[in-house]
Design a protein that fits this description.
By secondary structure, this protein is of the alpha+beta class. It contains 15 helices and 22 strands. It is rod-shaped.
């Protein structure tokens, strides 16, 4: 049978386990406000009894282990919710800012300036002899150009700002991932005996996993879930024989091995220095994973800023890049359509924009928006009457800039009067100066200058060639897209040179009327991918503003849903793992009472031993 000293040892085990349980409780209370800390519980069990007659005698209690109350299934949902919440929060914030650059509901955006522009031309058409109207047209033209240019610049600056955030975020991902790899090594070593549990190390790793989940979408694979229903129904932790963290399908962390992400400016974007993110293998091979970075703050940045940089040095995908591309398309279509119409106003000479060409390439191969069709070269006398008209046919698959110049210079009896001295070739000549900054020009001959003859380029109404619009001959606006759109320098310096007429006669308002009518006509817009869209200018801009508004509204709704989901899952996660000081204080009282009771047993046994010793004396 068990002796008195066995009873003393049994009581001593009670003192030890109560002290251990108090230590665990104290640890929990100390970390109650430590985000990421998982509450722990001392798991106690009865020690093996002594087999005696008339029955087994207990030998006390022992600590089996210290378990953290962690549910991996809930934790995974918590990380996923954190990833989505960070993504939607950042998108909502950014797109809300973008929407401020399209304030058309407040009558201060591009749409309002576009209306003022056409209204000023309408006023000029109503009073073609009032030169002061030209000043208003110039002002409204430049205001419109400025608001388009400024809007694009605002979005582009925001895109650049997002791009600058990529590097520090990638560095943060690398730092956290490397720390996780180091923690894995410590966890593997600490738990290698199959008994120890590296609870605090696991918490530190989970903290970094949570932080990473807010930066980018990750997939973490660990080896097998182990439950402990006897300790707590919420315990579902993972064994760590294996650990893999994937980013975009590539192993960022593999056990105790860390594979860094590498950030480099894309070789196509030296001017803008758009950062591309690569995964680096151990042999230093790089794989572009920019399109695989989804979720979290970095995923939101890539979704907004864009990725997949092409030869132009700009992303081909991304919400902000889509807005920029559409603003460029709007400006380009606007410039070309206005210039194509304004080329119909009689003048003495015309010089194109700079064109990078040898003059021998087919028009279809040039980036300008030439079309197969025709335009009329119209010559006006000094009194404004038409002297002659020659139709120039344009076939973009057979014609070049040189052949168009040759068609203008061809000796043809335009008036069909047998007189070779009153045809187009007698009054005007065309030429193309080849080179990177080549120019197509049309100028008067001495005969035309002496007679005061002028000319205009009138595009066909049925089969337009857009030759004047594509080249910038007789242009009203300078520039090629939203980065450089501007009223022509000549007109900025002297607005009175803006004319409403087609032929130079007092009261003629043909060009002013034609420009006014453009607001109701569909214009051909060439998108960045070379596809074409036909819309009115106002409708095309409305499409851009609507796209921004739709994206913003969707981002707000998605964020509301993500916030609600995160709140619900966070509450569940905290109910499982977060320290409750009330519960811990109750445990403290319980373990204190157990310690006091065990101490009382020791005191009693001490008295019994003293009694035994007294009997011997």
């Amino acid at each position: 049978m068990a002796g008195i000293f066995d009873s003393l040892y049994t009581a001593y085990s009670g003192l030890q386990t109560s002290q251990y349980a108090v230590n665990v409780t104290s640890h929990n209370i100390s970390n109650a406000e430590n985000d990421g800390y998982t509450r722990q519980r001392a798991v106690l069990q009865a020690k093996l009894p002594m087999n005696t007659r008339p029955g087994d005698v207990g030998t006390g209690v022992e600590v089996l282990n210290t378990t953290r109350l962690h549910d991996e299934f809930v934790y995974k949902r918590y990380k996923d919710a954190s990833t989505q919440q960070e993504f939607t929060t950042f998108e909502e914030k950014t797109l809300t800012e973008v929407s401020k650059y399209f304030p058309d509901i407040q009558n201060s955006g591009v749409a309002e300036y576009l209306k003022s522009y056409f209204d000023s031309w309408q006023a000029y058409a109503n009073n073609p002899s009032d030169s002061t109207q030209a000043i208003v047209v110039a002002k409204d033209s430049q205001n419109l150009a400025n608001i388009i240019k400024d809007t694009r610049e605002y979005v582009s600056d925001l895109q650049d700002s997002l791009n600058e955030q990529v590097e520090p975020l990638v560095n943060e991902i690398n730092r956290l991932a490397e720390e996780i790899a180091n923690l894995n090594e410590q966890i593997f070593r600490h738990e290698s005996n199959g008994v120890n549990k590296a609870n605090d190390l696991r918490d530190e790793r989970d903290k970094r996993e949570t932080a990473l989940s807010k930066l980018v979408n990750l997939t973490v694979s660990k080896n097998g879930v182990t439950t402990d229903m006897m300790t707590d129904t919420n315990v579902a932790d993972l064994r760590d024989d294996e650990y893999t963290m994937l980013i975009g399908g590539y192993p960022l962390v593999d056990g105790a091995t860390f594979h860094p992400l590498v950030m480099k400016a894309d070789e196509n974007s030296q001017a803008k220095s758009f950062n591309t993110v690569y995964f680096e293998y151990q042999d230093y091979t790089l794989v572009d994973i920019s399109d695989k970075l989804t979720g979290g703050k970095l995923g939101a940045i890539m979704d907004l800023r864009g990725y997949d940089i092409d030869e132009t040095g700009r992303p081909t995908k991304g919400k902000l890049q889509e807005y920029i591309d559409k603003l460029d398309t709007l400006a380009s279509g606007f410039i070309q359509s206005m210039n194509n119409v304004y080329a119909g106003s009689a003048t003495k000479s015309m010089t194109s924009n700079e064109i990078n060409s040898t003059g021998n390439e087919l028009l279809a191969t040039l980036p300008q928006n030439f079309k197969t069709g025709s335009f009329d070269f119209v010559v006006y006398k000094n009194d404004g009457t038409e002297a002659l008209r020659r139709t120039i046919n344009v076939d973009i698959y057979t014609d070049t800039l040189d052949t168009i110049a040759s068609k203008i210079n061809a000796v043809i009896d335009d008036n069909k009067d047998g007189n070779a001295s009153n045809d187009l070739s007698s009054y005007f000549s065309a030429s193309f100066v080849a080179g990177q900054y080549g120019q197509f020009s049309i100028s008067q001959t001495p005969t035309a200058a002496a007679a005061g003859y002028r000319f205009a380029l009138s595009d066909s109404s049925t089969t337009p060639s857009n030759f004047a619009g594509a080249t910038g001959l007789g242009r009203l606006f300078d520039g090629s897209d939203a980065t450089n759109i501007s009223l022509k320098d000549t007109f900025l310096a002297d607005p009175s040179l803006i004319h409403p007429y087609a032929n130079p006669t007092l009261g003629n308002n043909a060009i002013a009327n034609a420009i006014v009518q453009l607001q109701y006509q569909e214009v051909g817009f060439i998108n960045r991918d070379k596809s074409t869209t036909s819309k009115t200018i106002a409708n095309f801009y409305t499409e851009i503003a609507t796209l921004v508004a739709t994206h913003t509204d969707t981002a707000i709704k998605n964020n509301d849903s993500a916030e609600a989901a995160y709140s619900a899952i966070n509450e569940q996660y905290e109910s499982v793992s977060k320290v409750s000081t009330d519960e811990e204080l109750m445990n403290l009282i319980k373990f204190q009472a157990g310690y006091s009771a065990s101490a009382k047993v020791v005191t009693t046994l001490d008295q019994m031993i003293n009694t035994l010793l007294g009997i011997k004396q």
